[in-house]
Write a structure and sequence with these properties.
2,3-Dihydroxybiphenyl 1,2-Dioxygenase, domain 1; about 130 residues; five-stranded mixed β-sheet; alpha+beta; globular; single chain
Length: about 130
Amino acid sequence: MFTHIMIGSNDLQRSKRFYDATFVALGGKPGETDARGRLIYLHNGSRLMVTAPIDGKPATSANGGTIGILAASADQVRAWHSEGVAHGGTSIETPPSERPDGSFVAYMRDPDGNKLTVRSLPGATK
């Protein structure tokens, strides 16, 4: 259904440090900057793009919105959370934990306030 998710940032260098660290923790690669100055992250067939808003106004986070990212294991979820907090993210809701359905989940806000979650599916390797 989706081709990509694009979010705004007020500081692309800060966002690059945060997203590079968190995607590497998931086994991905650092982002690349395209000709228009947008950061592009490719991971498991999906694309996340980070940009300064094209209307010139400040970037704001979505109230009620969450971006979900799939991890291969609970260890990757923990690494993603740890790297994110170490690179300017804010841990929110509950600490990384197993859910009743057997999935393992962590939540945080990126440096611009966007709400992110990473989840490993039930039965994924620890």
